[in-house]
Amino acid sequence: MSRFATAKHKRVIKQSKGFRGRANRCYRVAIRRLEKSWQYAYRDRKVKKREFRKLWIQRLNAGVRQHDVSYSNFINMQSKSGVLLDRKILSGLAMYEPFSFKAVVDVVKMTAAAGTGK
Amino acid sequence: MATRGIPQLQKLYIRYCEHGGSSAAVRDYLSRPPRTSHLIEFATSNPHVQIVVKPRNGHHPYIQGEYVTGQSKQVCVKNVNEKRIREVMTMLRNTSGRKIVRLGGLAVRGDALSIQGVWTPMLDIKEEKFEMKIVEG
């Protein structure tokens, strides 16, 4: 085996740590699995943003339903109120700062009521 | 906004349509009498800004600001109310031309997860009342 092939193979196999079966040991299998993993990584960099938004929305929905409003209504009211907080921050508040979250929900409800009352 | 004493906003373009419904608020804003006109007041209090008002028929209205840095900011003002137009003018005047970038590194990490207490299913704060008031601003 030439020195250069071994070095190249070693460099590739180092990247396939944790892969299943012979893909973490043998160059030929590893390089195929690696190419697939790179494709997944490319696709999932875009998908990650979608997944996180889904998670935030689920959490917001749960948090907001405790205050007698649904996610869809809340978002509608929030876009008309002056609250510029996004789903990421709001879901974080719902999890870790429940009093602040309730305050935000109350403000949004109040501006909505004032808006429709006018 | 002024950096080291130099106001950053140099030019302000207001483009609107003379007939379209989306430009109705812009047309009202521009046609106010001089005594109550926000545009005149803005122009006199900001002599460093060159304001260009040009009709652009058949298109939605926008306000564009050009800055000392060479960058420009465009804000679409279709179907807004006059209060929003005043807000946009003030915003363009108050900001620098620089891009909005995240400063520093990632968020600060501490040991405490939460100050108010992490949410639990047993937490019941429906009776909590906060002092709230709507303020026109």
Account of the protein in words:
The complex is a heterodimer of chains A (118) and B (137). Chain A is mainly alpha-helical and 118 residues long. Chain A has one domain: c-terminal domain of poly(a) binding protein, CATH 1.10.1900. Chain A contains five helices and no strands. Chain A has helices at 3-15, 27-65, 71-80, 87-96, 98-117. In chain A, helix 2 crosses helix 4 (87-96) and helix 3 (71-80) packs across helix 5 (98-117). Chain B is α+β, with helices and mostly antiparallel strands and 137 residues long. Chain B has a domain at 2-94: Glutaredoxin (3-Layer(aba) Sandwich), CATH 3.40.30.10. Chain B has three helices and six strands; from the N terminus they run βββααβββα. Chain B has helices spanning 24-30, 38-45, 82-94; strands spanning 2-3, 6-7, 9-16, 50-55, 62-67, 72-76. In chain B, the strands form two sheets. Chain B has a four-stranded mixed beta sheet, covered by helices on one side. The chains are: A mainly alpha (118), B alpha+beta (137). Chain A binds chain B through residues 63, 66-67, 94-100, 102-103, 106-107, 110-111, 114, and chain B through 113-119, 123, 125-126, 128, 130, 132, 134.
